[in-house]
Amino acid sequence: MPFLGQDWRSPGWSWIKTEDGWKRCEPWTEGLEGETHRCGASHGTILNSEDEEIFNNEEHEYASKKRKKDHFRNDKNTQCFYREKWIYVHKESTRERHGYCTLGEAFNRLDFFSAVQDARRFTYVARLLQLIAKSQLTSLSGVAQKNYFNVLDKIVQKVLDDHQNPRLIKDLLQDLSSTLCILIRGVGKSVLVGNINIWVCRLETILNWQQQLQNLQMTEVDSGLTLSDLPVHMLSNILYRFSDGWDIVTLGQVTPTLSALSEDRRLWKKLCQYHFGEKQFCRHLILSEKGHIEWKLMYFALQKHYPTKEQYGDTLHFCRHCSILFWKDSGHPCTATDPDSCFTPVSPQHFIDLFKF
Question: Which residues fall in a coiled-coil region (predicted)?
Fold first, then answer.
């Protein structure tokens, strides 16, 4: 008899044999009644009381799941949610687990949509989206693409509302638009999951976001106390807390005092020593006319050749004992005696490398 079920261990549906072949029993209707009369079968012989109860429960469960699926499918701004906020990372089939974990599956399962609302995770998620845009965009499934652009939309709207991290998101959108332009031009040669018209609409949306960020105007807050009112040594301490050279340059454009402090050679020397090593200094040494090292110029020169250290308030973690990727606040069902010793912070690049086969 044909079988139709969500799980091979489930009892399946109830069926009836007709002249045209086997047909699945539907709720009692006049059409089915006429069919059963022709076949000489009564409703009692088709379904007994126990089978009818099982059938009604399964029919109700199937309808409920279908309504939820249609709801998420029709709502384009909704992410696919999962109860567990972790995912088992496996790269080969085993007796217990078949197939392997993909980047798209991990992007769906890990709660990036709500992570954008956390100030500690915002930069981490934005950097991860930027790396995916550069090299892994075509490896996302259709659902993962939908979630990706929903998260990106949430990020852009957040920046437009609170005016924080606009330069980071501008770089992200620039890399994403460049990648999409290349993929759309070579649509016959590249692998794009989905209709080409959808990708064209997404590119138009990205260009619209870029225009909105370009026209973003910072609102002046009249709170009484400003940076100009702070002592010079406090302003200097603020600059020494920055790990990005562009942030120092931007802050130096606020007032003449900050402009003078942002040109401090010791500040740029410390920044270079934090991000790069001595061997890298020797390869890109820049001297002034007086023979002094131009640390500011060296920083931007080294930045073009070597990656800088990245700082994040919170990151994903990987459990070496369970091979599970998770947010530390959410946790996961670890079976190790000392779970904390098995946890390893996962940088955005490490996240991408976990799903390269």
Answer: none
